Amino acid sequence: MIALTLAEVAEAVGGRLVAADPTVRVTGPVEFDSRKVQPGSLFVAFPGERVDGHDYAATAVEAGAVVVLGTRQIDGVPMVLVDDALSAMGPLARAVVDRLPELTVVGLTGSSGKTGTKDLTAQLVARLGPTVAPPGSFNNELGHPYTVLKADEQTRFLVLEKSARGIGHIRYLTTVAPPRIAVVLNVGVAHLGEFGSVEGIATAKGELVEALPAAADGGVAVLNADDPRVRAMASRTSARVVLVGEAADAELRATEVTMDERGRPAFMLVTPEGSAPVRLGLTGRHQVGNALAAAAVARELGMPLADLAVALGELRLVSTRRMDVFDRTDEVTVIDDSYNANPASMSAALRALAEFGRGRRTVAVLGYMAELGEFEQQGHEEVGRLAADLGVDRLFVVGESAAPIHHGASAVRTWGGVSVLVTDQAEAVAAVGAELRPGDVVLVKGSRYRTWEVVDALRADAVTETGNGTEGVRA
Ligand SMILES: Nc1ncnc2c1ncn2[C@@H]1O[C@H](COP(=O)(O)OP(=O)(O)OP(=O)(O)O)[C@@H](O)[C@H]1O
Ligand SMILES: [Mg+2]
Q1: 140-150 as b/e, with b when 16 or more CB fall inside 10 Å?
Q2: Which of 15, 150, 247, 337 could join 349 in a cystine, given CB atoms 3.0 to 4.6 angstroms apart?
Q3: Ligand 2 centroid vs 137 CA: distance in angstroms?
């Protein structure tokens, strides 16, 4: 964070200083975990799921925190008192952004691919200047301001994932760090349960482009031309619209898309400045759209086409469990896409598996997709049907809650593959382990922890099977 006096902090959050010298400066990071506190830090104390941060206030001060942002006074601890310390991080973050006129904020949203595309965008723009982006999926009312507070005078670009769990959430996040450039990737049925309808999701995601400055003030909305609900958001912004995708009218366009034997796309990047061939090191055709969105941001920030084409080819996977491909020494390839799942990302992953499957046997281990609301039954069945239609050879469906995947696949009469419904992850580990043979490709995917044990066992197996003490090699 930039150095702020305690008086400035108190003013930013509308708080009251107690036992604190208003002229003292916060020079260290803002932290809510006392173990991360450094000399000069501001420690944020709030009740968490298991512990109350206030119990760690004194520890934080011993570790060097110059002030604690909290809701109740603690003897001997300099404090900024507020009604809600977690919420106070928003205005504090905003105060930092307002003091950094050189900073460009880039916000991304979408139903699938926010974190991955945030990682891609951050890798590209980091070539143009110091960049702050959150690790993993730090995108909510805590992670978002926490990331913003990492920015300082050196930072040029802040790349933020904006997630919505309801109407107004993204609008709120845009008040914390107002974006100049926004990216909307797609609108799907992820988190449908909380919104009720896909239209509701589109309304919520579109709040990001509504918050942009007008075109004349530099506002840029990067919209996926291939998703009608995203494209339609052009009417909800006064920013300049940059369409990206495979549609003929996209400003940044991918043509001649081909896939290699490991599901990695290559394409011609077509821009108003000219065209350049791009070969991605990432797995899945869906990465074309994600890469185009990231490229549009970097181009907007001044990256010339030639550099862009090189940089796109050098993009690497950062956040784990998202199309993370590794080979085992027994010649089994594993696609770990187990971070999360919804019908769109299941489809993207199954299609990537099918690319590997040209000449290899394919195995899919699929678990429950959370938060689908009334679409739950249908969503799971469709995924099962798709797996069968794509010709997956062996399907393992993990857990009763995911059973409609099994039923959906089994109902496809033309399918030559086999589906097995297993009760839990332990059973899946045993069944998959018994099934695998050299040359197989295995996709593991489900919502959050639903299939993590399976994929972790597959990683561990690489060790035990070869006995050489090394983990499977990452592609
Ligand atoms: N454009 C895309 N279309 C469909 N699926 C995608 C796309 N991009 C990424 N995915 C897949 O979506 C899943 C989630 O990816 P990621 O974590 O990047 O998304 P997210 O939007 O940040 O998710 P969350 O809402 O859980 O934070 C992964 O399985 C990933 O492979
Ligand atoms: Mg995410």
Answers
A1: bbbbbbbbbbb
A2: 337
A3: 4
**What is the structure's pLDDT at 472?**
29
- Strands laid side by side in the 42-44 sheet: 16-18, 79-81, 67-70, 42-44, 30-31
- DSSP category for residue 223: E
Nearest-5° angle of CA 126, CA 132, CA 133? 100
Q: Please give the distance, rounded to the nearest whole angstrom, from the Cα atom of residue 124 to the centre of ligand 1.
A: 19
C-alpha angle 22/23/26, rounded to 5°? Answer: 90
What is the Cα 57 distance to its own chain's centre?
31
Q: List C-alpha distances in Å: 136 to 116, 147, 317.
A: 8, 11, 11
Mutation pick for ligand 1 pocket among 186, 342, 345, 350 (CB with most ligand atoms within 8 Å): 345
**What distance in Å separates the CA atoms of residue 110 and residue 202, rounded to the nearest whole number?**
9
Q: Which ligand is nearest to the CA of 325?
A: 1
So what's the pLDDT on residue 464?
33
Q: Which residue has the tokens 């008192």?
A: 81
Task: Confirm if 384 and 407 have CB atoms less than 8 A apart.
Answer: yes
Minimum-distance ligand 1 atom for the alpha carbon of 161: 22
The pTM score is 0.92
Q: Which residue has the tokens 């107690």?
A: 18
Q: How far, in Å, are 42, 127, 176, 180, 208 from residue 157 at the CA level?
A: 23, 11, 15, 11, 17
pLDDT tens digits, one per residue of 337-379 = 999 999 999 999 999 999 998 889 999 999 999 989 889 999 9
